[in-house]
Amino acid sequence: MGEDFFVEVDYQQKSYEGQRICGDIFLSGKIKEENRIVVVLSDGMGHGVKASILATLTATMAMNFTKEHKAPEKTAQIIMKTLPECSERKMNYSTFTIVDIEQSSKVTLLEYENPECLIIRDRKVFKPTDARYIETSADTNCSKKIRVCTFTPVKGDRIVFFTDGVAQSGLGTPRFPFGWGVDNAARYAIDMIKQYPQISARNLAAKILSMAYRNDGFQSKDDTTCGVIYFREPRELLICTGPPYNKEEDSRLAAEVSGFKGKKIVMGATTGDIVSRELDLKIEDVFKFEDPELPPINVMEGIDLFTEGILTLNKVEKILKAYNPANTKLGRGPADEIVKLILESDAIKIIIGTRINIAHQDPHLPVELEIRRTVVNRIAQLLEEKLLKKVVVNYI
Predict the structure, then answer these.
(1) Where are the domains of the chain?
(2) How far is residue 250's CA from residue 262's CA, in Å, rounded to a whole number?
(3) Is the torsion defined by CA of 206, 207, 210, 212 positive or negative?
(4) Are β-strands 132-135 and 145-151 bridged in parallel, bridged antiparallel, or unpaired?
């Protein structure tokens, strides 16, 4: 990927009406040493547990084979051989879309039976000139055609891809007797981009999903998933937690905060006192308890969020571990607000002060109250591996 832009990946999802388990599976992964991102969307035939298992099998194989640089033809052949086939419809039980974004700024799209991916560039649908169809070899259940194309992304490009739940939404209604369709979905996505030029991948996916839900009369007629990949300028976030090891470094910490151009979070009373003192910023206590498990958020001039430290960090890790874009609802507590800022950011810099807080060594405190560095490192790992964020951790 070019260093001048960030790749944002997100999705939104609804299950078939009345089903708790979705038969669509969305996976994304980063190969850090190759500066490479792989995204997979699979749609299992039918609904519920069986569809979910088949889609999970397909998506997992697709993810692993693509990470291993297997040729698209080979990946498709192995998946087709492995998947069972419907005896009546003579078709495999899962569809899939694979998006492989390589370090050289080359994107490869591999699609089987899902609606065709939309590449939106300059508010128009962009069609790669090398799109082709490959056939799996004759030793599979039967010959299948897989669509493959490659292109070089430019800043501002979006890739929008979805399952049949979007393309076939509204099927049989007077307005869309044959379903909403890929072309209508494309026009809607472009209209949203015109109205909100900086719309995030997450919000664009949510708007497309909401329109599909509306087309179906607010009762999903199929498992419905929309994924969006957005190549854009990175949004930066700074998180400072813990006082520097040496008090002489307090001014350096304050300079890092003052000079940072993106959004800023300060965590911990001692850390906040240092930043406030060194930069002459006012602190206002706000006794508004939105989360009974945590101390309230305070307000510091020039800082986007000022919270308590270690307890809030532990809660942030807990939320991130369980986070799922399709069904996680964030509240208004301190940890929830931090996660919201994280989700809205791409490049996250974390400064960890290494002075030990004696209070956190008290054996009477809960065992899970771990020292700051351990918790932050686990959070950084979640941000990189689960949310595909670019993370830098500095110690001071």
Answers:
(1) 6-232, 236-395
(2) 21
(3) negative
(4) antiparallel
3-state DSSP assignment of residue 391: strand
Q: pLDDT tens for residues 252-308? A: 999 999 999 899 999 999 999 999 999 999 988 877 788 889 999 989 999 999 999
Among candidates 102, 95, 108, 106, which has minimal Cα distance to 43? 95
Distance, CA of 62 to CA of 72 (rounded, Å): 10
Q: Has domain 6-232 been given CATH number 3.40.1260.10?
A: no
Q: Where are the beta strands (DSSP E) in the chain?
A: 6-14, 24-31, 36-44, 94-101, 107-112, 118-121, 124-125, 132-135, 145-151, 158-162, 224-232, 236-241, 263-267, 283-284, 299-300, 305-307, 347-352, 390-395
* Distance spanning both ends of the chain, measured CA to CA: 30
Calculate ∠ Cα 316-25-59, nearest 5°: 110
- Residue 29, classed as helix, strand or coil, is strand
For 213, half-sphere exposure in the C-beta direction (CA atoms, 13 angstrom radius) is 16
As a whole number of angstroms, the distance between CA 55 and CA 74 comes to 19
Residue at 294: amino acid letter: L
